[in-house]
């Protein structure tokens, strides 16, 4: 603890619960109260349905089981990252790389018949950032799978009879970890595909580590031009070297796509992904001839991938996935810290980033928006960090903190932190340490206000929510935002 009189606390602005934007706004209301307003502008006017991932729509129409694609269509990120990379100087990338040589890969797990590939990949990516300091780290995918779908909020929006068969994705894993529902050591809730036991309820908010950042990557060829996915591959390689293993998803069920002799996969035609795995390296010179005869890519080069089907499959549980595989879709990199970094975590809904919204019709004006949350301090504490999502590559942010605010008015009271600025090169979830921590008194109402400025993507506000299998948007996804708007 930096101050023995104050607990270190984290504030999460995980959804745009109070909004001001470049369009006129005359009424703002928090999700936790405030007088109703008239003259609301339907949020649907500012929500572009093209943001929905086609793979997600098909997944819902097919029953919503197995690997769940992200609801977001992240194809725009490849172009954003291409711009970002062209503006920055990166180190030369080696022709081949293998994180196993550095001891940064967990042993190969066996998921058996459980649909937890997504949670295995996410926890293994997260563990990979810790293995250099804590070589025995192994994190529990069962804890993530169970508590992502069990609980009052979780069951309302993500209910399933069997959380281990329902599937999931990186967005779900990030949201769960960001709420400090894990990650925990695998030994506390072990994976046992033959006789899986459910975690005890007292483990729900136990976390051995805290998620600090999660970077959403532009991996894959879907929707993208050749030059764009080559840039995407370079970004992925950079993250592998900077952070550790990363997750991706691909289609594992095609005919003549897997060469058992060489443990090499290649889908020559687009397929929606059905399996999440862990990328641990690459080889630019991996021979194209190693893929199945009659189904080979045009060029050499492949990702080194750790699977979750046990060591008897593939090359001791590993395989090669062609750079040109047409089914690859976006993945994530995770960064963790030990759980003693902060003592408290303020946030509201824990659904994570599900949608992105613009509050102006003009594309340039829509790239800038403001969001806020109002909280009440639970004790004498010191606010030392703020977490939030960004929707674009290279988003600039400005953070302000107010104390003594009035209900529904986040910029009232006393401004304690005046406009801390920064830039996040990667889209995703971020934790920013405050330059000047803010002391809070028990019962004091305080706010965190963030201004987003996106370089390219004209929907800077990340919202949380879920859709059911009939593709009905749950009401409370938009409720707080619509209440905040009067134009």
UniProtKB/TrEMBL annotation:
InterPro entries: Lectin-like, Papain-like_cys_pep_sf, Pept_cys_AS, Peptidase_C1A, Peptidase_C1A_C
Swiss-Prot/TrEMBL keywords: Hydrolase, Protease, Signal
Keyword Signal appears in the UniProt entry: yes
N-terminal signal peptide: 1-27
GO molecular function, one term: cysteine-type peptidase activity
UniProt xrefs under CDD domains: Peptidase_C1 (cd02619)
GO biological process: proteolysis
Chain ranges of the Peptidase C1A papain C-terminal domain: 93-336
Pfam families (UniProt xref): Lectin_like, Peptidase_C1
PROSITE patterns cross-referenced by the UniProt entry: THIOL_PROTEASE_CYS
Phosphoprotein among keywords: no
Family under the similarity heading: Belongs to the peptidase C1 family.
Protein name according to UniProt: Papain family cysteine protease
Species per Swiss-Prot/TrEMBL record: [Clostridium] methylpentosum DSM 5476
Organism phylogeny: Bacteria, Bacillati, Bacillota, Clostridia, Eubacteriales
């Amino acid at each position: 603890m930096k101050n023995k009189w104050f607990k270190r606390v984290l504030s999460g602005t995980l959804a745009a619960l109070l909004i001001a934007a470049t369009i006129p706004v005359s009424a703002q209301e928090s999700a936790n109260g405030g007088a109703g307003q008239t003259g609301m502008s339907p949020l649907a006017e500012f929500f572009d349905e093209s943001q929905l991932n086609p793979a997600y729509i098909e997944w819902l129409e097919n029953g919503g089981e197995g690997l769940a694609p992200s609801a977001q269509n992240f194809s725009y990120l490849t172009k954003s990252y291409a711009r970002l990379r062209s503006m920055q100087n990166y180190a030369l990338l080696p022709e081949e790389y293998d994180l196993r040589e550095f001891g940064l890969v967990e042993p190969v797990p066996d998921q058996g018949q459980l649909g937890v590939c997504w949670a295995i990949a996410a926890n293994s990516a997260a563990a990979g950032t810790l293995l250099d300091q804590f070589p025995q780290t192994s994190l529990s995918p069962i804890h993530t799978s169970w508590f992502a779908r069990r609980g009052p909020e979780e069951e309302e929006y993500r209910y399933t009879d069997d959380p281990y068969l329902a599937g999931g994705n990186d967005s779900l894993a990030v949201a769960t970890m960001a709420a400090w529902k894990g990650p925990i050591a695998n030994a506390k809730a072990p994976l046992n595909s033959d006789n899986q036991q459910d975690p005890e309820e007292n483990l729900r908010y136990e976390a051995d580590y805290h998620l600090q950042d999660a970077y959403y990557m532009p991996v894959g060829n879907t929707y993208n031009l050749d030059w764009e996915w080559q840039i995407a591959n370079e970004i992925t390689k950079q993250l592998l070297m900077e952070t550790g293993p990363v997750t991706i998803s691909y289609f594992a069920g095609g005919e003549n796509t897997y060469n058992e002799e060489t443990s090499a996969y290649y889908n020559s035609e687009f397929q929606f992904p059905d399996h999440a795995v862990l990328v641990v390296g690459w080889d630019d010179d991996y021979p194209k001839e190693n893929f199945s005869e009659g189904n080979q890519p045009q060029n050499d080069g492949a990702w080194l991938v750790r699977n979750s089907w046990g060591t008897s499959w593939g090359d001791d549980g590993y395989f090669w996935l062609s750079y040109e595989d047409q089914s690859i879709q976006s993945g994530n990199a995770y960064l963790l810290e030990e759980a003693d970094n902060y003592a408290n975590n303020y946030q509201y809904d824990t659904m994570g980033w599900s949608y992105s919204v613009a509050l102006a019709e003009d594309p340039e004006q829509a790239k800038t928006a403001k969001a806020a949350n109002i909280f009440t301090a639970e004790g004498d504490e010191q606010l030392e960090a703020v977490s939030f999502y960004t929707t674009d590559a290279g988003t600039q942010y400005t953070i302000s903190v107010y104390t003594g605010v009035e209900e529904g008015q986040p910029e009232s009271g006393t401004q304690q932190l005046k406009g801390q600025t920064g830039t996040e090169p990667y889209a995703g979830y971020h934790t920013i340490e405050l330059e000047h921590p803010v002391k809070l008194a028990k019962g004091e109402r305080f706010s965190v206000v963030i201004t987003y400025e996106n370089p390219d993507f004209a929907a800077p506000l990340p919202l949380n929510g879920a859709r059911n299998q009939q593709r009905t948007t749950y009401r409370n996804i938009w409720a707080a935002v619509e209440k905040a708007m009067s134009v």
